[in-house]
Amino acid sequence: MKLTKPLIAITGASSGIGKATAELFAAKGYPVLLMARRVEILDSLNIEHKITAKVDVTDIKQIRQAILKAEKIYGPVDLLVNNAGIMPMEKYVDQSLKDKYATLDVNIKGVVNGMDCVLKTMNARQHGTIINLSSTASRWTSIDHALYNGSKFAVNAITEQARRENSENNVRFILIEPGIVDTNLLDTTVNKEVLDAYLVNKNNLKGGLKSQDVANVILYAYELPQHINVKELLITHTQQKI
Q1: pTM over 0.90, yes/no
Q2: How many C-beta atoms surround the C-beta of residue 138 within 10 A?
Q3: What domain range includes position 97?
Q4: Is 242 contained in some domain?
Q5: Which residues are paired to 175 by β-bridges?
Q6: Is residue 55 part of a domain?
Q7: Inter-residue long-range contacts of 39-45, CB under 8 Å, 24+ positions, other chains counted
Q8: Active centre residues (catalytic)
Q9: What span, in angstroms and rounded, lies between the C-alpha atoms of 129 and 81?
Q10: 2 found inside a domain
Q11: What CATH number is associated with residue 81?
């Protein structure tokens, strides 16, 4: 089958929202570049027309190499979904410097790296979309989230200004800000007391949104005509209060 749809690149594609997005776009006939540290999981996914790459998003060379490999086969990336992220929760004073730096590196530097790998060519083609996964945590601060809040506030600011500077080149920037989603993002939180407090809210929402819910929103925003830019989508389970 000859593919007529453009290449979609997704970071953090081995689980959660990234995996659901990869599966959905592939089912719709898009070739997909799947990037994650756990490449063995990517390789095991039953997805057609995929390119997989072991990528640490804090290393821009790894992202560039993966994109070059995929573009030689499927043409230029038309959509980048910057999804990779971590959320080690802890009170600021108790959180290790290692976890603080890791949160900033993955959640901010990883987004910047992804953008820098595709934006200039999108501008040159006068076409393309970058979707950055932020969070409701980008709107207000909350207990045990200082570094995570800060990283997502930064993603919002970077995305908004990059959109203003590149919109004349017909390039869209879209912020997706999910609330509580039933993913493994909590795996990086090791403080049991902090984790249990968070899980109370999550369990009250029966896990919150599903990864597939967010993937559907990403597909919707992307498949709108190029002249329509849904700049920001804040989405939560109906029963989530904040």
Answers
A1: yes
A2: 21
A3: 7-235
A4: no
A5: 132, 232
A6: yes
A7: 39/14, 41/14, 41/15, 42/13, 42/14, 45/19
A8: 148
A9: 9
A10: no
A11: 3.40.50.720
Domain count, the chain: 1
Q: Answer whether 20's CB lies under 8 Å from 42's CB.
A: no
pLDDT in tens, the chain (242 residues): 567 899 999 999 999 999 999 999 999 999 999 999 999 999 999 999 999 999 999 999 999 999 999 999 999 999 999 999 999 989 999 999 999 999 999 999 999 999 999 999 999 999 999 999 999 999 989 888 999 999 999 999 999 999 999 999 999 999 999 988 877 766 676 767 666 666 556 666 677 889 999 999 999 999 999 999 999 999 999 888 77
Strands (E), 16-148: 32-36, 50-54, 77-82, 128-133
State the Cα–Cα distance between residues 34 and 114, nearest whole angstrom.
13
3-state secondary structure of 12: coil
Q: Which two tokens mark 222?
A: 């992307």
Alpha-carbon distance of 83 to 11, in angstroms, equals 5
Kindly state the tokens that stand for 156: 């919002």
Are the C-beta atoms of 145 and 201 separated by less than 8 Å?
no
Q: CA 240 from chain center: how many Å? A: 21
CA–CA separation, 197 vs 180, rounded Å? 14
The residue written with tokens 């998003």 in the block is 57
At 8, list the tokens: 């979609």
Query: Crossing angle of helices 97-104/146-166, nearest 10°?
Result: 20
Give the DSSP letter string of 198-215. Answer: HHHHHHHTTTSB-HHHHH
The structure tokens listed for 99 are: 């976890």
